[in-house]
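Intended use. Records like the one below are meant for learning the mapping from a protein sequence to its folded structure. Do not use them to infer anything beyond what is encoded.
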Amino acid sequence: MISSGVPDLRIRTRNAMPVREGGDHVLYWMIASRRTRHNFGLERAIAWAKELDRPLVVLEALRCGYRWASDRLHRFVIDGMADNARRFAAAGALYHPYVEPADGAGKGLLGALAARACVVVTDDYPCFFLPRMVASAARQVPVRLEQVDSNGLLPVRAADRVFTTARSFRIFWQRVIGEHLAAPPAADPLGRARLRPAAPLPRALARRWPAASPALLGGDPAALAALPIDHAVPPVPRRGGPEAAGEVLARFVAERLPRYLDERDHPDAGAASGLSPYLHFGHLAAHEVFAAIARRERFRLDRLGRAGDGERRPSGSREGFWGMSPSAEAFLEQLVTWRELGFNAFALGAAEGDGPRLSWKRDPTDYESLPDWALATLKKHERDRRPRVYSIEALAAAATYDRIWNASQVELLREGRIHNYLRMLWGKKILEWSPTPRQALEVMVELNNRYALDGRDPNSYSGIFWVLGRYDRAWGPEREIFGTVRYMSSENTARKLHLKEYLARYAR
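Structure written out for the chain above:
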């Protein structure tokens, strides 16, 4: 076993094939951590390349046949490919950005590269179609296939059960986070890699599966329009990729973080981070976000969990654990507790061909995975009269009577996002306006995954299922339609939030 600096808990061997020491190269199959910085998977692949004295080949591929494939999602990923191409070229690695020109055209590419590889390293992302894809590849590649987890500050398999409340998960991660913070990924694993130069891909392989064209990588609309994807969902104004992610992170830490606690819920304040699309597509690492905040806050690992007088904070406390400012603590509650709680559910609750499901009824994307109390109260009120019922077409078009809800949907259509607080209201109103809770779930998933840049992600599924009671508790009084599931209204939202500029921008 090589010593790579990557914690063993983050590495899974997915087949019983050996490492082929006489192979031509080490292959890093980049499928989720689409970046060159703070990336345990890339770090592991580099370690193999140095141990075996072989070149590093990096395959970053983009299918066109996945569900919800669109100009919006493709453009964001391809922006990142352009950034990665520059970084890998400077480091001497052979990087192959492949964008499938037709459904199924990429079939065989991974096998062709793996056939000449010593070992294959890929990313461990527990959501969407990726677990099935990797499980299938593990059965087919002729060499060892390793999956490496770069999802969060906590390894997704640090826990041995699925947590059903934020507090129980917080108690757990606060107990173990110190040891994991002490073993971060290398900030720039390519920086001192000194990789052996790689030969170009064989001509026949490059001809059959050519790298993405300069026009496509450069943002040419015509090149994107030629792909067989959904052109009705256009790209958003913002650019994707690690370079843009770094700029957004820097602005957030310098300008928005100090007022995050007081202003994050107000759409007019513009205090939200804007980082979720970059985290979702792997253009930004949770470790990089944490490092930027820790530098600003002068964080010390030896003060973790202690108040200013040195006394330990109560277990599970949301405030004071990090020894940072209240705004930084509030943001890290979102980055660690809420974001990684979703990864916990997917990694252990819907393990694809990887052992038993632990402490979960079924796949966390299923309606029946809601807690028993939520299923019971929603069933009790399933036949309650709905004051209005909207079709998914009307909802997608933001054609309801509710001005605030319409504005949030327009923001989703234009920007690929919804303000954090309004996203909760957005889901609650869909529950109110749908014939059944199960249909409400289907509508939320469809609209979110089609239009949101951070859809198709464990964290966004957590938000959708929270609307229906996951990670929450029963609330009184019992109401029509909602039962004891938490209720939200546009009237209360209008009273609580600063919305004037937001409505001027998005309301029709």
